[in-house]
Design goal:
Layout: E1 9-18, E2 21-31, E3 35-40, H1 47-55, E4 62-67, E5 70-71, H2 77-83, E6 84-87, H3 99-109, H4 118-124, H5 140-152, E7 158-162, H6 170-183, E8 188-192, H7 196-202, E9 205-210, E10 213-218, H8 226-232, E11 234-241, E12 244-251
Parallel strand pairs: 3-8, 3-9, 6-7, 7-8
Antiparallel strand pairs: 1-2, 1-4, 4-5, 9-10, 11-12
Helix pairs in contact: 3-4, 3-5
The structure holds adenosine-5'-triphosphate (ATP).
Adenosine-5'-triphosphate (ATP) binds near residues 23, 41, 43 and 45.
Organism: Lampropedia puyangensis
Protein name: ABC transporter ATP-binding protein
Pfam family, one: ABC_tran
Length: about 270
């Protein structure tokens, strides 16, 4: 990771709550201009909320988010759109537009529509065949790939992605994670993800969230920390596959009862 004196993105004691319920407790974090960061943690830990705060999509109830040393809220939307590429966990356009139209809208939002043609961007990302496809006609994995392509189209210095690989098959997920980690060598890339092995294999920095707080923050050696088991509520078996340690999770308590379907359900012949 770079040791840039001014972080490109900084959270200073940022908190967020909804209807009196605190979802992210006072959190401070400094992210340099370069590096790949994975945010992991159990369901409901506050990972997506933290990412939305970083993207300026949620206004903190306390503290502040700085983008390039200036408060996020004081920066024009166009500046934010140019600086931050945000890939949400779920996305559905208001109208069933085509991939090309979606891309044109993204380029326009970042004021880059005069410089880049949507078709050229799609070709660059190997997605030209989808140009005229309507959003609703795409599979979940295709939607994720198109979305990432629209986000990367503007070459944002900061890329924030919320579970971008969730709907992808094993090959595309690996390609995507590798591409994001590679991008982290020259830009800031922050990815919320559930695949711990991919996070520890490819990312420079791993941030673990639990109950609205950052509870661990370090490099891939965190895979060995017994605190990881505690925060995920499982026992991890560590399988040494040099240079990596793979994590195989075991339930600490008897597994949840699953209804049995054998017995008395009559099958019609
Ligand atoms: N707009 C909201 N209104 C009320 N509660 C919310 C809102 N957004 C998030 N929450 C709650 O805050 C908690 C954290 O949500 P968040 O989506 O940030 O978790 P997460 O770590 O990303 O979870 P997951 O891994 O399941 O995606 C959850 O309990 C969620 O229900």
């Amino acid at each position: 990771m770079s040791t840039s004196p001014t972080p490109v993105l900084e959270l200073q004691n940022v908190a967020w709550s909804k209807r009196g319920h605190t979802i992210v407790h006072g959190t401070s974090l400094a992210l340099p201009a370069c590096g790949s960061v994975a945010i992991i943690g159990p369901n409901g830990a506050g990972k997506s909320t933290l990412l939305s705060l970083m993207a300026g999509l949620h206004k903190p109830v306390a503290g502040q988010v700085l983008l390039g040393g200036t408060t996020m809220q004081s920066q024009p939307i166009a500046t934010r759109a140019k600086t931050i590429g945000f890939m949400p966990q779920r996305f559905a356009p208001h109208w069933d537009i085509t991939v090309e139209e979606l891309l044109a809208m993204r380029l326009k939002a970042a004021c880059l529509h005069t410089q880049l043609a949507p078709q050229a961007v799609l070709e660059l990302h190997g997605m030209a065949a989808f140009a005229h496809a309507r959003w609703s006609s795409l599979s979940g994995g295709e939607q994720a790939r198109v979305l990432l392509c629209t986000v990367l189209a503007t070459q944002p210095p900061v890329l924030l992605a919320d579970e971008p690989g969730a709907a992808l098959d094993v090959r595309y997920r690996l390609e995507l994670v590798q591409a994001l980690a590679q991008r982290g060598r020259s830009h800031l890339v922050v990815v919320v993800m559930h695949d711990l092995d991919l996070a520890f294999e490819f990312f420079d920095r791993i941030i673990v969230m639990n109950q609205g707080r950052i509870v661990l923050d370090g490099d891939r050696s965190l895979a060995m920390s017994p605190l990881l088991d505690q925060h995920f509520g499982v026992r991890f078996e560590r399988i040494n596959v040099p240079p990596q340690v793979l994590l195989k999770a075991h339930l600490q308590q008897p597994a949840m009862a699953v209804p049995s379907f054998e017995s008395d359900v009559p099958y019609a012949d």
